[in-house]
Design brief:
heterodimer, A: alpha/beta, Rossmann fold, globular, B: alpha+beta, two-stranded antiparallel ribbon, 3 helices
Chain lengths: ~270, ~90
Amino acid sequence: MGEVIVITSGKGGVGKTTTVANIGTGLALMGKKVVLIDTDIGLRNLDVVLGLENRIVYDIVDVVEGFCRTKQALIKDKRFEGLFLLPAAQTRDKNAINPHQMIQLCNELREEYDYILIDCPAGIEQGFKNAIAGADRAIVVTTPEVSAVRDADRIIGLLEANELRNPKLLVNRVRMDMVKRGDMMSIDDIIDILAVDLLGVVPDDEKIVISTNRGEPAITDSKSVAGQAFRNIARRITGENVPLLDLEADAGFVHKLKKLLGLKTS
Amino acid sequence: MILDLSKLFKKTKNSKDVAKERLKLVLIHDRANVSPQFLEMVKSEIIKVITNYMEIDEDSLDIQLTRTKSDDGSGVVPALVANIPIKNVKSSGR
């Protein structure tokens, strides 16, 4: 029986879709059978982030309305064995699906796949309610900004009110140099405020922009620090115990030199 | 002159500390989902009860709605946190 995980954030633009694409690819690379569902109906984007936009025939609304079979709508990613996308509909609105239909869809998919990752739309309206309906657990994505953390807090409250207990936090776009100067909230600050468990930390990385331009998840780029962070997160999701990434490794030449000379122990 | 010197040595606050403080305040209200008047009402009732038994510092009394990890660690629960400085315990209360 597979597991259904919703990736949500409240605020838009914090990296939900990128997270879904990378973790999903990571799980597939680990030999799992994975379906990624885009529930952002009317504003679909997971297809372009994955580079699968030209292969869409049917979408999630076609599936729930019985217009096609689920299998027909699933797009198989030819680059990664075991990775499938169920795209959102672009010309419909969020009310084209209801939570009951989502639960049915998730239950059908979990018979055959190991992980079903749901890309949740921003906001707390119908789209959010649909996205979380069939989920077993939740990952909340945030960035170290007041607005994003505030929305994450609201989402955590709503998830718990909907019986999705113990959501895990993913802090995206962290800049260690700014944290060090005291110009960005640290992971500890954020955990302290939100009182949830940390799933992982993803450093801010130009390579994400580049990989998204190309439609190739950064997780496949061995030189990308964000890719490395996502690889670790994918392993944690399968239950492996992977220590947090040493983000300071990328802190620059002087720091590396000091570390080398033993002037700095951290 | 003295003022200027103290200004020179006083570090300006990190922007992340400002962010943290603002966030904490905003979240208290978000989480409570109640009006400040409601909290004031709770506060005055609590003062009423406690002053029957002890003398408290009403000005520095602080009541907040927040969230904390539950005892069994399985989730987060809302909590009413009250910081009530006691000046003196009334003899009648003993």
